[in-house]
User: Fold this.
Amino acid sequence: MRGATAIAGAATFGVGRCPGWSALEMAAEAGRLAVAEAGLRLDDVDGVFICLPDDLFAGLSLAEYLGVRPRFTDNNRTGGASFMSHVVTAAAMLAAGQIDVALIAHGSNQLSGGGRLSTPAKSNQWEAPYRPLYPLSSYALAAARHMFEFGTTRAQMAAVAVQARAWANGNPEAFAKGDLSIEECLASRMISSPISVRDCCLVTDGAAAIVMTRTERARDLAQPLVPVLGAAAATWWNAISQAPDITTTAALESGARAYAMAGVKAKDVDVVQVYDAFTINTILFLEDLGFCGKGEGGAFVEGGRIGPGGALPVNTNGGGLSCCHPGMNGLMAIVEAVRQVRGAAANQIGGVEVALAHGNGGTLSAQATVILGSAATL
Amino acid sequence: MSGAEAVWRAALAEGRFLLQRGVASGRAFFPPRGFEPGTGGDVEWFEASGLGEVYSVTVIYPKPPAQAYAAVLVTLAEGPRLMSRVVAEEAVIGMKVRARILEEDGAALLVFEPA
Assistant:
């Protein structure tokens, strides 16, 4: 499976603010752009993969809107891990010859549509009576335990937000720009301790789409080849109270399987995109994906290591914290990874051969990891 | 015959905090189920000791004038973990706690107090 499929097209649409558009319209527009830049036609698409916040039958709606009759439709709902999970499914189906062109899309108008996180998900009946904020308090419980066990500090979490902002300042597409200091983060309003306003991702509009084909076909298409070297998903729980160890996520498993399939290790990855719904996420996933040891994530993100000019570039578009967060951020992370491999990112890192994109869904519940390479890695 | 959740809630309404364990494994778990998670094995009910320890805490700050409140995760002496509330000025990680059953919004609610 390694390198058998490739991402042939990638596009974003309406990043930041996109008033007057529905989520479906935005996803479809991103899809049209991704298909066009791949050098394909809409009616080449025979596999449709999507997750929308407001449409349980989104795959059917998108196929209808595009005017295509897919051989397979997938509405996987694992939150922000949906899109990396779509890559797992699409890669297997393409390799098996069940489909030829997969379109994976997402769109959200949650900023223009109300300004709050748009999600049909909520706390289950065992947690709801204690009134946690969903999903925020679940991440806060993980952060509090990480601080207790490993001495992680709020300033270290703030360092994640500050470096995300530094990347956003170099990205014309990013929504939140301007100076941001650790002191400002620490002084921002507490929401569910230890998570304050600046530990939280943005609420924005935005849409993204990618097109996947078998690698042999992608070689003849319009864009530089970006093969999928590895892709894997893992689910360990839904409710945060069911986490055996709240500081270790299923990224440990999805990452290990994606690395094994790709034949690479964390040290071979040139640029990392992780779903940073909250600052603690970046710390947890850098640990679970093997960039540092368990409990070392707080110290790891200090000193500018993951920001511009740092040793490990993380969330180079500004991430969910400062670029764009349309409710579920997974597809934005994949598009940024594709751009880095192509050499076409706003904050381009030199000589990217291997890029990792990691998605998180629910309350640290579902994890999925995609590893992309350049043509030279095949 | 009811599902496991209804059995548990009926017991709680009578002032009893029940847990389940696998008959073969002896392993306790929560929330209640019709079979042991992971194995599908038969389960039996038993009375929980009610003792536990706070595993994590978050304090939620709603917009004033609403008061801040804490949500906690408690690791029970029998092993399972659940979300709850500690009836105390402050809850901290590692605090030993004991279960208590309140009535809230017309239903029995499992909370904890310092042990």
Remarks:
- Chain B has a mean pLDDT of 97.
- Residues 46 and 112 of chain B are 19 Å apart (CA to CA).
- Helices of chain B lie at 4-13.
